[in-house]
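Dear all,

This email documents one entry for the complex benchmark we are building for the journal club exercise. For each entry we list the sequence lines for every component of the assembly. Then comes the predicted three-dimensional structure of the complex as a token string, followed by one or two observations. Please use this as the template for your own entries, and keep the labels exactly as they appear.
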Amino acid sequence: EVQLQESGPGLVKPSQSLSLTCSVTGYSITSNYWGWIRKFPGNKMEWMGYISYSGSTSYNPSLKSRISITRDTSKNQFFLQLNSVTTEDTATYYCARSRGYFDFWGPGTMVTVSS
Amino acid sequence: QITLTQQAESLWVSPGEKVSITCRASQSLLYTDGKHYLSWYQQRPGQTTKALIYHASIRTDGVPTRFIGSGSGTEFTLSIEDVQPEDIALYYCLQTLKKPYTFGAGTKLELK
């Protein structure tokens, strides 16, 4: 079975970078698409972007040039980096597999941006 | 970008009843392959987000038949027949027709 698990710091200071890892088991990230989604306090959900089976990426324009999604195929992991964070980036961050819809999700990791 | 409107923030239901959650898109979600790129998700506290329905009406593996997705064009509905206590959750629709992919605001299903 496909399983995803997010990991990373739960607290990030404003203006710093947020870095998260998604570890995937049961399926190779060299197939399909692998995305990051976040849920803000108040329940609004936002698709952040994805990395494809070939390593190409697509990002939500709302995140402009702050976001980067990369991968390490040898470890079957992909990564999220979000730069210049503010308190508005406080959210629960999810990784998920995309096959036209998001069929498998990680449990999510809460990240708070605060000094 | 495509806006998805889930008008009901909360719905109250008793076990055994039927409930419908609606999702309206700002433009048609029909692609040239004849499929609608609209999916539904369930979030329960402490549980992993679960995909219920994709292409508007196809249940994912293991989803009970009481979950029914319907609709076309810009209007979609997730119906839950014979609601069970474990169905109390937050439900989202999502469009993956055009980037940026966008979610509805969510509908919280609560027990009367």
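Observations: Residues 46 and 91 of chain A are 10 Å apart (CA to CA). Chain A has no helices and eleven strands.
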